[in-house]
Amino acid sequence: MPLKLSLKPGEKFVLNGAVLQNGDRRASLILQNKASVLREKDILHEDEATSPARRIYFPVMMMYLDEGGAQKYHEEFATRLAEFMGVIKNPPVLIDCLNASKHVMAKEYYKALMLARKLIEYEDERLGNVPTSLSTG
User: What is the 3-state secondary structure (H, E, C) of the chain?
Assistant: First the structure.
């Protein structure tokens, strides 16, 4: 199933590990086959992984962008997820954690990434964070 990407002028995105930037006009791209694509707003730099949920998101993002080398991020993901789950008591959030883990084990990294994003939203809501990256607004 094709994926249509509508890009703002100057918007950056990652396509299979390559960083690309749109020109000075709106543009649409249609991807005809499976590819790892992340928009600039969904990219978290390692130094921005400053909270428990962001430390879960980062290795999942790296698995998604580097499927061939994904195994090297699994231990970090498992450690950070276990730490997060150890302090969370909210059943729906714990279910999201378990489902993210299942998706990682099934190599469904984009699905796991979207659940990790939900964890960031939950964490920001609970802690009153005003995120500098991965804003939800």
Answer: CCEEEEECCCCEEEECCEEEECCCCCEEEEECCCCCEEEHHHCCCHHHCCCHHHHHHHHHHHHHHCHHHCHHHHHHHHHHHHHHHHHCCCHHHHHHHHHHHHHHHCCCHHHHHHHHHHHHHHHHHHHCCCCCCCCCC
